[in-house]
Amino acid sequence: MEFQFQFDWQAAIDSIPFIIKGIPYTLLISFGGLVIGFALGIIFGLLSINKKWFFKWPATAYIEIFRGTPILVQVLFIFYGLPDLIGAPVDPLTAGIAAIALNSGAYISEVVRGGVQSIDKGQTEAGLSLGLSRTQTFWSITWPQAFRRMIPPLGNQAIVSIKDTSLFSVIGVGELVRQGQIYIANTFTAFEVYFVVAILYLAITLSLSLILRLVERRGLASV
Amino acid sequence: MTQIVKMKGMNKYFGSLHVLKEIDLTVEQGEVVVIIGASGSGKSTLIRCVNGLEEFESGQLEVDSQPLAPKSGNPKSLAEIRKEVGMVFQQFNLFPHLTVKKNIMLAPQKVKNAPEVIANATAERLLNRVGIGNQADKYPSQLSGGQQQRVAIARALAMDPRLMLFDEPTSALDPEMIGEVLDVMRELAKEGMTMMVVTHEMGFAREVADRVIYIHEGQIVEEGKPADVFDNPQNERTQAFLSRVLAH
Fold first, then answer.
1. Which residues of B fall below an 8 Å CB-CB distance to A?
2. pTM of the prediction?
3. What are the per-10-residue average pLDDT scores of chain B (248 residues)?
4. Option in A122, A123, A131 nearest B111 (CB)
5. Rounded CA gap, A163 and A160, in Å?
């Protein structure tokens, strides 16, 4: 008997309305997590370049821990492990957002550190020599220039984090992959459904790339 | 005469390297002091101590009657001194993300809380003074090196400093642009600005300086009127240095 596989377009199209329900969750977890991650990245990135050890060491520890362990382990830890510690359940959505936030925060810290350290020391000296305080010099001279250089790696991190949310199907968040799995359980059309899931991820990441490219072009035009 | 800068027995180390040795130097109000010397002699470090961009290890330094203690880094007295002391750098160090005009307006607005209209008027006046009034809305990268350095001078002048420090202001410039920057500095000197200038432009030193100081390995070995230092140097180190730089 010969096995012949035929891509079932109808099955793919039929699956879309169900799978697409995962998009709000995918977007909520990624962007919610990234916004918090960006805040964490600024805080810990700046602390990690502070000369004082009691700022630098904890920040470096955070960065190394969350960069050095898999995000899947992190989310399992938050979802299954943390309730034991705090004595209350953590809902899957919160766990997902927290995992993206903490994980992307570690990577963004490094982006912030690299961006700030790439700005020439002469810029700080010029600011100080004009009588600006260290804080004024940093926020009005160093940071705006560093931020522009951070846009491409930040975009990169956003795309990585969006894709990372697919792992959270394991804790039952109804994001794209999870929706696909539920659908396949009833129809057994794995090939078509995962194809649709992949296309939907691509649609999200490509739109983001496009937006970033426009932002970059606008931001760099003046430097 | 008011003494704007007073240094007494100042010593500065980079690790084990003794870069400034027992420096005694005063600068009077309205005086133009040009500091010459080979690269690595400590001349840039010397003027960077004046506005606290470098700390020194021992000795005394007073700028505009404000004492600056060794290794203090006291942010309050540093901020006070920096308001009174402008600095022009070898690499210009303009802010690339701001227009020329905003480069000049930044410090008056942030440090002196100058209203925007006032800061704006000051910027326009200073840009005209350094001869680039028509470039106000461009970004630094759109200007030539000579124009950028003139913007940097205007930026420092916007804080109405009592003293201007020039750290090799023409060393990064193409030869044909050196003149336009020296012209602006010459004008400033003529108007009575107190200036400390580190430079390799011996012609400028001879013409504009009230006093020339030669530094060798962190020590002031010769000091005097330009005519004396250039035509009749007493120290053999100075003689050797001048014969090297004036030979061509």
1. 51-53, 75, 79, 82-83, 85-87, 89, 91, 93-97, 106-107, 110-111, 139, 141, 152, 155-156, 159, 165
2. 0.89
3. 91 93 95 94 95 92 88 76 95 97 97 96 96 95 96 97 97 94 96 96 94 95 94 92 83
4. A131
5. 5
